[in-house]
């Protein structure tokens, strides 16, 4: 049986050299030829380090203390650096997370693709050129000849990741290591790139080791899944079996943390909207110099929307759809070029008018990145208390009490008050950010991607907390997200945006079950969903299967 | 609590000794730094005059101590002037952007194009060479670099979400600047201010060396170095000791500056 394995890792241990902290604790796994294996785990689980160690690409601060890595009958740990180099690229390919930085920005695409071929194969320049052009065509680049003499910045993120994939697959490696290959991409683009990757590797019989934090994505494309937690493999098995009957508590926790739809809530249909946006237009003006003025860009083309009391409205769309701009405009962080925002029946313009002051008092925001939304020089207590600064009717004592109360509500004990943000984990920081937003008891909260920077299990906890607070204090919420799974869990109503326009709007169930607009369908079909079965396990659910065929634009 | 780094101790010691000497030198020196004694002209270092005497028979140690007081005082005031003016310009232009930013920064860049010492020389020619003239001239000469550094820091800070969060809370602009922007500029400002202390000391010495500093007979390290030039063959100690004072002080300041930055940034504190 040993001969049927392409890669076989045994007892791999990785240690941080300086602190002797073990980050990968003796893991063993193997990959058969042509098999697609996923490694799933949260940040800090050691999944990326383990994958990098296969090609001896672990960062210098980390050293391998034990273990063997056999690849195609060769012991990789015994190889000299030059032998290893011959293997990298030619036999083991690697695709990295960030398409913006994994291609050399100052090198023509053609040269970059040619580089590997010239290094590992004895072919003439013409033969190499033909191969490169074939591959570019195969990954769906429209004008391969033109692409050869273009630079990476002339392509979008998705196209770059295709080019990256092309450069790796050109050499027809036996194993492809893909480290979060599509995390930086939009849902729709993500699906296209992944489908392309699976298709290319299937055709060439290349085995794939796919590393990801996204269980539903891995479940969709892999044959087998390895679950890692804190440097150890906690569970391993065929994708379907593992989903259906997760044995290890951690796997069960991961699966339970997947967002799921809850029964729809009742929002009185007659309630008057608390926030209304009419004909909102936002322009970004171009660069202005002393002598020239560049053309600007219209980010929002006349948006109309309303939010009722206690209602959670989700704003979804790909990057560049204008959802974040709309959120910032509604928060009053940028000046619209046209249109009106009304709160409780009064316009919030101009700044410092009565309507504005009232709105400022009642509208709060939770930002995406908990690492940047908290002032690093202030303690947690001071950060939350600051939100109460503008409240004239509260005494210092009341304020202190309110801060205690709110921190308790978000699950942070009293001794967190004197700590600094950098002493807290990402999830804890986001709890502080939420505490700061709700401490004033606002009537309206704008949440801009509040959980997209968090790990799966932490995300579930923060979402629960948010729903709980929303239930208790009854604020309305504009929830901006690209993650449809999360939206399905929290939203009462969904607004879909594309290129600065609202393309579809409706109740959550209507949007998710009966999408009308093609873009909504495309978005929905791009994300796989997991569905709980009666036995407590989970099954992969395909949304809108019929759509898939129409959108597999990739030429075989 | 971990021990401070060795270079922080070294830098701190050097600066500590300098400050003690400066304070001490302002009140008491072994001999009168201005008293001329032709009987004891150009004495080499010995038991009576520890660091020797100069061409007028004045005690070099006494003069160095008195000079330290002058130099530290001038440098401190100059750095304070430059940091205050530069921070004000930097924070305002960086936070509000727009036309004021463009005009002020164009002017700032023009000033930056001059070497600081040249600018100070020009200003001194107008203001006149005295202690406060030097402070004003050097202060103005060093303001543009502070403004640049602060503006750059503010530009990146104002895009951070915690500044937006402050706006969403309804805080006035002035409060946001004072509470969130300024404190986060402290770390780069400290490093800049400490190294600037060194440059100012050096510039002040250079100005004195050129004869545009504090007028004689009051001693500064720069004018002591300048007057030692003619006697370099007979009395080498006249040049060595002021030179050593300048170099050691600069070393101490740089070591201390780095250590201070590590200390002031809460993210660098051990968790």
TrEMBL record, chain A:
Its main location: membrane. SMART domains: AAA. It is a peripheral membrane protein. One of its GO terms (molecular function) is ATP hydrolysis activity. GO terms for biological process: peptide transport; transmembrane transport. Keywords: ATP-binding, Nucleotide-binding, Transport. Pfam families: ABC_tran, oligo_HPY. Residues 7-255, 275-524 form the ABC transporter domain. One of its GO terms (cellular component) is plasma membrane. It comes from the Bacteria. It is found in: Cell inner membrane. Belongs to the ABC transporter superfamily. This is Peptide/nickel transport system ATP-binding protein. It comes from Microvirga subterranea.
From TrEMBL, chain B:
It is a multi-pass membrane protein. Keywords: Cell membrane, Membrane, Peptide transport, Protein transport, Transmembrane, Transmembrane helix, Transport. PROSITE patterns: ABC_TM1. InterPro entries: BP-dependent_transpt_permease, MetI-like, MetI-like_sf, OppC_N. It comes from the Bacteria. This is Peptide/nickel transport system permease protein. Belongs to the binding-protein-dependent transport system permease family. It comes from Microvirga subterranea. Residues 68-257 form the ABC transmembrane type-1 domain. The chain crosses the membrane at residues 7-28, 72-96, 103-126, 132-150, 181-202, 231-257. One of its GO terms (biological process) is peptide transport. It is found in: Cell membrane. One of its GO terms (cellular component) is plasma membrane. Pfam families: BPD_transp_1, OppC_N.
